[in-house]
Amino acid sequence: MADSTALLHLHVEQHRPMPLRGTLQAEAGELVALLGPSGAGKTSLLRCLAGLMRPERGTLRVGDELWLDTDAGVCWPPQRRRVGMVFQHYGLMPHLSALHNVALALLHLPPAQRQQQARRWLDQMRLTPAQMQRRPAELSGGQQQRVALARALARQPRLLLLDEPFSAVDAMHRQGLYDLLADLRRELVIPIVLVTHDLHEARQLADRLVIMDQGAILQSGTPAHIHRSPRNARVADLTGVRNRFHGVWLGPQDDADRAQRMGWLQWTLPEGQPTPMRLRVRDKGKLPTGQRVTWVVQGDGLKLDAELGLAAGAPAPDGHTPLMATVHTARHLGDTTMAVAALHALPGVELHLARSGPLRQHLQPGQPLRVWLDCAWVHVMPTRQPG
What are the DSSP E strand ranges found in 122-268? Predict the structure, then answer.
């Protein structure tokens, strides 16, 4: 059970030396991933949490402790905050063994207890007794990162910060570190904040994503929620939503639409020209008629005939729109095939499809497809007007 006193709440507002604004929250035992491009402000936010940077204005509370309140003149130094940090390039002392590197975090204990506790943590990180006696240069990158993680946890921190900790580790050993972190999280009752630019890593590890760009927090939520319902087109770009299109919001057309909270979306070409294609989708009541929009559909909302058990010429299932397309590129990536298909009725518009198993056979260059768009998966976002 998560310890509610370890709740993390950070709010920052800053214009110089770099813009930084937004609110970050994490429950005890929750892993929150800060995701965004280089220069988005992810590491700056991490430095504010660690006490290595004081924002122009901000508050930071961890459980019942107020670590930062710029209005009240409160700013705890890093050594008082009990933060565990793991860096991209490990930060280990090169002249010390793995055991003595971890023992450095335990100087408040008698020497014998330091060694005992350091061994316990390294054993939990799955290092052998022989590896514990080696210096960092004699260990692999993955083993060095395990030592760094053991050192960060040895002081029993109130908060664990991971600054792109796996980016310097090769892909083969990275999965082992992911599995180790997943195991550790079952025992840890502290918030964990991970900085990463790797979308796959963030989705695999995080309970919640915080999407950042140009110093601002754009959206926060579960990976599934953000992928299905990005707040705007920039969030869609940063979270890898490939099926993103343009349209004009027509709104509800009759009493039945209004009663069911449904509205109509006119599909437009990328240059803005209207098309005959109209989709009946959920109406959140926030868009005026005539509003230009961007809309997205997750891969789950695009089905092939075989997935719906439909024969050629079968009628459309409720809420589904048929799209005739032809596959023009396909990449086979192990058990998955990624394909791009051109729509016959919409010049310049493409669908991105991913399939595994026998369905991969439908995704071959030149293959004609009937793709069913499930309008329940359509998410509509207003397009920012220029000027």
Answer: 159-163, 192-196, 208-213, 216-221, 244-251, 262-268
Buried b (16+ CB within 10 A) or exposed e, 349-364: bbbebbbeeeebebbe
User: Phi, psi (5° rounding) for residue 121?
Assistant: -70, -40
Q: Report the distance separating Cα 22 and Cα 217, nearest Å.
A: 5
Map tokens 């930060």 to a residue.
Answer: 91
Q: Which amino acid is at 6?
A: A
Q: Compute the distance between CA of residue 190 and CA of residue 157 in angstroms, rounded to an integer.
A: 8
Six-digit token string for 124: 């939990």
Residue 20 near residue 167 (C-beta atoms within 8 A): no
C-alpha to C-alpha distance for 170 and 144, rounded to whole angstroms: 12
Q: What's the one-letter identity of residue 70?
A: T
Q: List pLDDT tens digits, range 318-362.
A: 889 999 999 999 999 888 999 999 999 999 999 999 998 888 888
Q: What is the pLDDT of residue 2?
A: 38
β-sheet with 320-333: strand ranges across: 302-304, 368-374, 320-333, 336-343, 350-356
**Could you read off the pLDDT of 274-329 as tens digits, one per residue?**
999 999 999 999 999 999 999 999 989 999 988 887 776 677 778 899 999 999 99
The pLDDT-based confidence of 3 (bands split at 50, 70, 90) is very low
pTM for the model: 0.87
Gap between the Cα atoms of 32 and 210, Å rounded? 7
DSSP 31: E
Residue found by looking up tokens 């999407």 in the block: 211
